Amino acid sequence: MMISLPFQLHSSLKNTQFKNSAGDQVFVDENRRSEAQYAIMNYLVFPNDTDALVKVGQFVPKAPLGQDFTVYEDVIVWGFGDSEVPSGVCSDSCHAGFRKTPLEGKAVCCFDCSPCPEGEISRQMDADQCMKCPDDEYPNKRRDRCLPKLVTFLDMKEPLGMTLAFLAVSFSLLTALVLWVFVKFQDSPIVKANNRTLSYTLLISLTFCFLCSLLFIGHPTTATCLLRQTIFAVVFTVAVSSILAKTIIVVLAFRAVRPGSRIRMFIHPRVSNYVVLICSGMQVIFCGIWLGTSPPFPEADTQSEIGHIILRCNEGSAFAFYCVLGYMGFLALGSFTIAFLARNLPDTFNEAKFITFSMLVFCSVWATFLPTYQSTKGKAIVIVEIFSILASSAGLLGCIFIPKCYVILLKPDRNTQKQTKNQRDSRRKIFSRAKRNTSSCGINRLEA
Length: 448
Description:
CATH class of the largest domain: Mainly Alpha
Oligomer: single chain
Order of helices and strands: HEEEEEEEEEEEEHHHHHEEHHHHH
């Protein structure tokens, strides 16, 4: 019978047994033990074009386990005189921290070794894919294992946090000292001429502006996250509203001295108080809506810095946060515009110039803050905001009150009623000169 199919051939050989030339019994059936011993031969080709079979090992089925298979590796010759074992693949193995990348158009055994992407690792050789580290861990430099992240925040104990806290307390004490000077010399002309109530309100609000930056330092909690932005927004709005009221009073006082002016009815302490209350009340309403809809909350930022978990406050609603800043900026721009237009008015102890410079510093700081706040990450965001609070508050204190303290303490001869009277007389001369010019223009028109 002729056998043509493989399984038919296999069934024919399955039970075949025979004796070889050495007299050993050989069984083809894999389920039966063979009594034969095998020699492992290495085929060699010599330079003189001769060849030979050299025994390089043997297989003895009856030998104890571990001694049944013997190979003499130092005798084996691979290829054309090469003693190294040839590789079964066309690419080297990929170490831990790398993954295999197949090469297009080549066999499966051909690949490149690519480093694991950012945030991923591979622990084994020839890994097909890398695995991501948990959120609280990050890869080491070799990207073969994950390490625990370090929890961090702007701590009061670290040098930068300590420095910012020291500056905040120092500026608040300096503001309190200026307030004490204004209270002690409250009956002096320079203090009375610039609305004592508004000056006191502005100095108290500036003191809290400096101190509110302390809420940004330390471990963020639910309470501090709710308070830091709202208190900052309200006290800064009170300060800017006080400056706006001061500027309006300066302009109204100048307009009111004109004969027959109806603006005198607005020269009243209550007007400035209403300006501060209304402007600050609007900010309180904005903050209340913010806290009622999407309030700030503490969160752990695991993405900003490699190897660190940044504890910070999420603003909740970014739109509400920028609305609060925008309203404060609107008041500051209004104060700057009015003060700039009134900077040359011949009013007694006119502080419009000082307000102009202070608002210029204030607006410059916060105009710089916005792009910097957007481009920074992690702990640097808090540092940028604290610096902006301290710089803008110091600008208001330095530009508005330091020149007055200089006159009060070091130039008392300029802080007298005589000086006030001379300035008032010069102002009357300017008005009378303007009035005569106006009358002469009218006469010239009639003559024409």
